[in-house]
TrEMBL record:
Low complexity: bias regions: 406-422
Stored SUPFAM superfamilies: Arginase/deacetylase (SSF52768)
Pfam family, one: Hist_deacetyl
Keyword set includes Nucleotide-binding: no
UniProt key word Hydrolase: yes
A GO molecular-function annotation: hydrolase activity
Compositional bias annotation for Basic and acidic residues: 370-382
Region of interest (Disordered), ranges: 370-423
Protein name: Histone deacetylase domain-containing protein
InterPro entries reported for this sequence: HDACs (IPR000286), His_deacetylse_dom (IPR023801), His_deacetylse_dom_sf (IPR037138), Ureohydrolase_dom_sf (IPR023696)
Main location group: nucleus
Length: 683
C-alpha cells in the first residue's frame, strides 16, 4: 500500500505507436518492428507489472515542443509524409541513414514525444516517483534536421529541454544504455553544461554503425559543455554484466553524484542485452534491474526511462520487465557470478577516466596516462594481423543464443519491520511492521556471543535488543519481510549477535557494513562467511584478508561527504557485488559521523544486494531524524539527493585508492586498468 501510494510508477503506452512499419525491403531496418512494443507491453501485463503502474495517456507533442530540438524546415518536411505515395516516401527516406518513413510515422513520432513529456510532467509534479514510456519511433539518433537510425524526433533531448523550460530543472542527467551511440543527443547538448550525457556503445574502433569519429571517448563536449559529454566506446562485442557494472561504478556513478542531477532521463535501449542481433553483447536482462536501481538513488528518485532500441523480442521484453519492476521498488535479483571486466572494456574505462579527470573531482586522482584515440590504436593492432588476447572468448556469432529466463522477483508481504525501543517510536513510518522479540535468556545470549564480554549483556535492554534482532532476522529468513531496522542498546553486541544468528540460520555470506570506530566484534575468517567493510576515522588494525575492508576517512569538513561517497561507489559496491551476500547488515556505531542524507543513500544503494535483505542496526539515542530517514529508505521511498559535491579530501581518496589496490587481486570489479596495464602495451 505504502509503496504504491508514495512511490508510484508511471507506464505510458499506446497501441497507436505499433501502427507503422517498414513497407519496402531494407536489410538495415528489418529489425525495427511493431512487435517490439506489443511483446514488451504484453510481458508487463502477463507479469502483473503493468497493472501495478499508474497508466497515463499519451498525447501528441505540439510544434513548439518538437522545435525544442528540431529545426522547422525538417518538421515541415516530416509533416508532409502522411500524404506521400509509397514512392515519395522511399525517396524522402533516402536522404537519411538507416531509417524508414511510413504514412503513420509522423503521428507516432508526435505521440512518442508526447508520451515522454507526459512522463516528465508526472514525475516533476510528484504525481509519481518515476516511470517508463514505451514508445516507437525511438529518438536518440535524430538530429536537428535529420532522421536517422529508426529515429524521427529526438524524444529524450526534447524531454530534457522541456523539463528545463517547464519545470525549472537545472541539471539533467541522460544515461544512454542503448548499444548504439545517441549522437543526436550528443550534438544537441555538446556545448551545454546543464545536461550531462553519458553513452556507452558498440564501437569497435569506429567500424560499427554509425561509424563516427566523435563517438570515441575523447569527445568530451565543447566550450562550456566540456566534460559534460561522456562516451564509453565498446571496442569488442560480447560485453557482459561485469563490464556494464564496472562502467557504472568507476565512471558514471561517481560523476553523476558529483553532477547531482535534478532529473535522470534514461535512453533505455535494450539492444545492449544478450541475444540482440545489433549489439551482440551478452549481459542478461537482470542487469537492467541493477542499472535501474543504481540510478534511482540520484535526483531524489526522479527517473524517466524512455524506450530506444532492443530487437531481440525475448530479450527486450524481459529487460523491459526488469526495468519496470525495479522502478516499482521490488527487490533486484541477486547479482551472482560476476567476475571482472574484460581487457577491452578495461581499456575503454581507463581511457574515458583519463580524458575526464580534468573535469571531475572524483576522477582527479586517476593515472594521467597518455591515451591515444582508440581508432588509431585499432589500426595498429589489426594491421599486425594479430588478434588481441581475449578475442577468442568474445564470440561474434549469436545464432541460437539462449539464456535462462530471469527468476521471478517476489517481494515479501511486508517491506520493512522495525523494532523500536519501547515508548519511543514517533519516527516509525506507518507502513512499517512493528516487531518485538522475546528477550534472549542470559544463557542464550552467552551461547551466541562467546566473543563478547558477558558484562556487556547486563546493560539495560541488552537482552531485549538481542531478542529483537533475532526476531527481525527470523522474519527476513521466513520471507515475511524484506528488511528490518533494530534500535539497539549496544551496536557492537548487536552486530556480533546478528552475524552469528544470520550465518547459522539464514545464509553463508553476510556483508557487514559498519560505520564507527569500535573494533568489529566478528571473527573474519578465510571461509568468507562474513565480509566486513568498516568506515572509521582512525586506522583500524588491518586484518590482511580480502574479507576485511577498512576505510579510514577524515571525520570533519565539507569534503567528507565526497570522500565517503567515493568509497561507497568505487570500493564498497564493487566488492559487495563481487561477494554477492545473502544478507546485508548495516550498522552505525554511537560515534558514527555519517548524516542522515548519506546514510539513507548508503541504505538505498545496498538494497540492490541480497534481494533487498538488509538488517540495519542503529544506536539507541541516535536521533529520530536519522532513524526515520533509514526506515524510509528501507521502505523504498526515494532518498533525498546529496547535492553537488565538493572535491573529496585528497587523503580520503588516497586511503580508498590504497584499499582498492590492496584488494584488486581478489575482487575483479575493482579493476580500472588492465592486469598488465593497457598503456604499457602501446609504448
Ligand atoms: C534506436 C536504435 C539503431 C539503428 C541501427 C541502424 N537505432 N543500423 O537502436
Ligand atoms: Zn540502439
Amino acid at each position: 500500500m505504502h509503496q504504491e501510494m508514495k512511490s508510484g510508477t508511471a507506464l505510458i503506452y499506446d497501441e497507436e505507436m505499433t501502427r507503422y512499419k517498414l513497407l519496402w525491403v531494407d536489410p538495415a531496418c528489418t529489425v525495427e518492428v511493431p512487435e517490439r512494443l506489443i511483446v514488451s507491453h504484453a510481458a508487463l501485463q502477463k507479469q502483473g507489472l503493468a497493472q501495478r503502474c499508474v497508466t497515463l495517456p499519451v498525447r501528441e507533442a505540439s510544434d513548439e515542443e518538437i522545435l525544442l530540438a528540431q529545426v522547422s524546415e525538417y518538421l515541415e518536411a516530416v509533416k508532409k509524409t502522411p500524404f506521400m505515395s509509397l514512392e515519395d516516401l522511399m525517396t524522402f527516406t533516402q536522404q537519411y541513414g538507416d531509417v524508414y518513413f511510413h504514412p503513420n510515422i509522423y503521428h507516432c513520432a508526435k505521440l512518442a514525444i508526447g508520451a515522454s513529456l507526459q512522463l516528465v510532467d508526472s514525475v516533476m509534479t510528484g504525481q509519481v516517483r518515476n516511470g517508463m514510456a514505451l514508445v516507437r519511433p525511438p529518438g536518440h539518433h535524430s538530429q536537428r534536421s535529420a532522421a536517422n537510425g529508426f529515429c524521427v524526433f529526438n524524444n529524450v533531448a526534447i524531454a530534457a529541454l522541456y523539463a528545463q523550460k517547464h519545470h525549472n530543472v537545472k541539471r539533467v542527467l541522460i544515461v544512454d544504455w542503448d548499444v548504439h551511440h545517441g549522437q543526436g543527443v550528443q550534438y544537441c547538448f555538446e556545448e551545454d553544461p546543464s545536461v550531462l550525457y553519458f553513452s556507452w556503445h558498440r564501437y569497435e574502433h569506429q567500424s560499427f554503425w554509425p561509424n563516427l569519429r566523435e563517438s570515441d571517448y575523447d569527445s568530451v563536449g565543447k566550450g562550456r559543455g566540456a566534460g559534460f559529454n561522456i562516451n564509453l566506446p565498446w571496442n569488442k562485442v560480447g560485453m557482459d554484466r561485469s563490464d556494464y557494472l564496472s562502467a557504472f561504478f568507476h565512471v558514471l556513478l561517481p560523476v553523476a553524484y558529483e553532477f547531482s542531477p535534478e532529473l535522470v532521463l534514461v535512453s533505455a535501449g535494450f539492444d545492449s542485452a544478450i541475444g540482440d542481433p545489433e549489439g551482440l553483447m551478452i549481459a542478461t536482462p537482470d542487469i537492467f534491474a541493477h542499472l535501474t536501481h543504481l540510478l534511482m538513488s540520484l535526483a531524489g528518485g526522479k527517473l524517466c526511462a524512455i524506450l530506444e532500441g532492443g530487437y531481440n523480442l525475448t530479450s527486450l521484453a524481459q529487460s523491459v520487465c526488469q526495468t519496470v519492476q525495479t522502478l516499482l521498488a521490488d527487490p533486484a535479483p541477486r547479482p551472482s557470478g560476476l567476475s571482472h571486466p574484460c581487457k577491452s572494456a578495461l581499456e575503454s574505462i581507463q581511457c574515458v577516466r583519463a580524458v575526464h579527470r580534468q573535469y571531475w573531482n572524483c576522477l582527479k586522482h586517476t593515472e594521467d596516462t597518455t591515451v591515444e584515440p582508440s581508432t588509431k590504436r585499432c589500426r595498429q593492432e589489426e594491421g599486425d594481423g594479430v588478434l588481441p588476447e581475449e578475442s577468442g572468448q568474445k564470440k561474434e556469432e549469436t545464432q541460437e543464443i539462449t539464456w535462462p529466463e530471469p527468476t521471478t522477483r517476489l517481494a515479501p508481504p511486508a517491506r520493512t519491520a522495525v523494532a523500536p525501543p519501547a515508548g519511543v517510536e514517533d519516527w516509525v513510518p506507518d507502513s512499517c511492521l512493528r516487531v518485538k522479540g522475546t528477550p534472549l535468556t542470559p544463557a542464550e545470549a552467552e551461547e551466541r556471543l562467546r566473543a563478547v564480554d558477558p558484562k556487556e549483556l547486563e546493560e539495560d535492554g541488552a537482552l531485549q535488543s538481542l531478542g529483537n534482532i533475532t526476531a527481525l532476522l527470523d522474519k527476513i529468513s521466513n520471507k515475511e519481510v524484506q528488511n528490518g531496522l533494530a534500535v539497539v542498546s549496544d551496536v557492537s553486541v548487536g552486530m556480533a549477535c546478528a552475524v552469528q544468528h544470520a550465518v547459522s540460520s539464514l545464509t553463508d555470506r553476510v556483508l557487514l557494513v559498519f560505520v564507527g570506530h569500535d573494533e568489529v566484534p566478528v571473527q573474519v575468517t578465510e571461509d568468507g562467511k562474513v565480509l566486513v567493510v568498516q568506515f572509521c576515522s582512525k586506522e583500524p588494525e588491518d586484518r590482511k584478508t580480502k574479507y576485511h575492508v577498512p576505510v579510514c576517512l577524515k571525520k570533519q569538513g565539507g569534503s567528507s561527504e565526497a570522500g565517503f561517497l567515493h568509497a561507497v561507489l568505487t570500493l564498497l559496491l564493487p566488492v559487495a557485488y563481487g561477494y554477492d551476500p545473502g544478507l546485508v547488515l548495516l550498522a552505525a556505531g554511537n560515534d558514527s559521523w555519517v548524516g542522515e542524507v548519506l546514510w539513507a543513500q548508503l541504505t538505498s544503494l545496498l538494497q540492490s544486494l541480497a534481494q533487498g535483505h538488509t538488517l540495519t542496526l542503529m544506536q539507541l539515542g541516535c536521533g529520530d531524524k536519522i532513524l526515520r530517514a533509514t526506515a524510509c529508505s528501507l521502505l523504498g521511498d526515494p532518498v533525498p539527493a546529496v547535492g553537488p559535491l565538493e572535491a573529496p579530501d585528497p587523503q580520503d581518496v588516497q586511503e580508498v585508492e590504497r584499499q582498492r589496490r590492496r584488494l584488486q587481486p581478489h575482487w575483479g570489479l575493482l579493476w580500472t586498468v588492465g592486469p598488465a596495464e593497457c598503456s604499457s602495451a602501446d609504448g
